[in-house]
């Protein structure tokens, strides 16, 4: 599975492409940080982020896009910008028919380090180790984008199995309800 990991942001937006292999084997194919000037008009900044994301999607053809879910930040303005950047990237993926998954920071940290409250240095160190990189990806936005893609590679199969199990349970419940209704109808008939 080829996954585009995105650490959304307006000033710095981390983007990466990771490919999963057998088991937990993952390989980094590309990583970068899209930057926009803080003094630029918001709509223009979002356009730059969107254009870069579309270029990555068209060039690398990911099978899924994993975006960090904006959980909470102390600075509302930063949170809004982060959410808006993630939104334009999700829209670009949807237009291409690419499934989008949102992962919280704690889910990503837990997947990569085993600790949902790991710090950025721990995440970067584990990303470097997992991918077998000679040097740590910099800045942190690049490492976070890689961590998101790794997280999705490792979580997606489990999430897919859970969704199938839920769909099967719902179907079984519908069949049971239909059978029960038929029995009641036959008794009262």
Key features of this structure:
189 residues, alpha/beta, 18% strand, globular
Structure overview:
There is one protein chain. Helices cover 58% and strands 18% of the residues. It contains five helices and five strands, in the order E-E-E-H-E-H-E-H-H-H. Helix 1 packs parallel to helix 2 (76-95), helix 3 crosses helix 5 (140-188) and helix 4 crosses helix 5 (140-188).
Low-confidence residue ranges: none
- Radius of gyration (Å): 20 Å
- Mind describing the biggest β-sheet? 5 strands, mixed
How much helix, percentage-wise, in residues? 55-70%
End-to-end span in angstroms? 54 Å
Number of strands: 5
Strand-residue proportion: 15-25%
Give the helix tally.
Answer: 5
How would you summarize this macromolecular structure in one to three sentences?
The protein is 58% helix and 18% strand. The chain is of the alpha/beta class and 189 residues long. A five-stranded mixed β-sheet has the order 3-2-1-4-5, sandwiched between helices.
């Amino acid at each position: 599975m080829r996954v585009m990991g995105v650490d959304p942001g307006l000033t710095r937006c981390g983007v990466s492409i990771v490919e999963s292999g057998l088991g937990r084997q993952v390989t980094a194919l590309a990583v970068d940080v899209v930057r926009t000037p803080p003094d630029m008009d918001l709509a223009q900044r979002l356009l730059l982020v969107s254009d870069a994301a579309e270029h990555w999607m068209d060039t690398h053809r990911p099978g899924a896009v994993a975006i960090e879910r904006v959980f909470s930040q102390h600075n509302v303005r930063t949170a809004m910008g982060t959410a808006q950047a993630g939104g334009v990237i999700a829209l670009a993926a949807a237009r291409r028919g690419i499934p989008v998954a949102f992962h919280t920071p704690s889910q990503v940290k837990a997947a990569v380090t085993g600790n949902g409250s790991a710090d950025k240095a721990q995440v970067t160190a584990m990303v470097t180790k997992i991918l077998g990189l000679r040097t740590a990806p910099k800045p942190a936005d690049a490492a976070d984008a890689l961590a998101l893609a790794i997280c999705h590679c490792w979580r997606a199969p489990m999430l897919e199995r859970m969704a199938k199990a839920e769909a099967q349970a719902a179907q079984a419940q519908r069949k049971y309800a239909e059978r029960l209704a038929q029995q009641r109808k036959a008794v009262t008939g």
